[in-house]
Amino acid sequence: MNNPVELKNLHIKAGNNTLVNNVSLTVKEGEIFGLVGESGSGKTLTAKAIIDLLPEGLTYTADKIITAGKDMLTASDEEKRDHIGKKIGYIPQNTVFYLHPLIKIKNQIGDGYIQHMHKTKKEALEKAEVLLSKVGFKSPKTVLNYYPWQLSGGMRQRCNIAMALMNDPKLIIADEPTTALDTTVQKQVMELFKSINEEMKLSILLISHDLGLVKRYSHSLGVMYAGQIVESGCTETVFNEPGHPYTRLLIKIIPSLKMKKNEPLTEIPGFVKDKDRDSKGCLFYCRCPKAMDICKEGVKEHTDDTGDHYYRCNLE
Ligand SMILES: Nc1ncnc2c1ncn2[C@@H]1O[C@H](COP(=O)(O)OP(=O)(O)O)[C@@H](O)[C@H]1O
Ligand SMILES: [Mg+2]
User: Fold this and answer.
1) Bridge partner list, 26
2) Average pLDDT for residues 282-309, to the nearest whole number?
């Protein structure tokens, strides 16, 4: 079976400064994979490396990057651009800027379809109409005539999702797709991703800093900390048997629905390290309630018998 993403030992640097260190992950066919971690942990850069969109000035190495069946390490720039344009629906983190606010939806939603799939504008608009209705718009024709600034955040995100589906991609990468939305709209948009995943059998790499959301919507997940994946596996297993103290703390601070409105969360003291991310020791050392002296020197990696549940920690 073809996995939509296979990433092995990704390193990303800005000059000599390591930003992402030794990240490996697999998004399996038909699943929602949640990539979760605090701000600055390297989620966006990891996603951008997978689709060859790293910002200028950053360099990377990896042992393997297979994206929707294509070996990204051997393909030419042109092959990569064409492949990503056809096979990946990307919803970047700051979606306010994804659709141009001053261009009508109908004059931009089909751009990728026309360019990569060699279709006419008429064909693009027909398809856009079908997809806009699929993502929940009752009168897609009216929406096509709107400017993005006339739409609410939730409606804009639905348009972004319709646009990401235009080329019948193999994989959707959605970077913090609901962060800017209020709770009710957030739930509607996530339910839409869920139905797209189930009905269209589409794999989704869902990036979020919200472990509660990832718990609810992902089949597998990777927990990132300071540029590394500290734990990964099937969502149920990771929640039932979290191996890394960071995962355990995150699980503890998921706001519970039963919690009173103004009750403070038990936060994790300290900040994510943004220097020395290539150190051999544990990067969570300074914040870890269970830190031991050996954690400064090195970290033990654990993988269960199935090869699915992984975590890095010196605790047994
Ligand atoms: N273009 C860049 N140049 C230098 N450092 C960057 C650049 N983009 C991101 N970073 C740094 O890389 C780290 C990971 O960033 P990012 O992947 O955006 O984190 P996340 O998406 O998890 O919030 C952060 O410390 C960030 O400051
Ligand atoms: Mg990000």
Assistant:
1) 6
2) 94
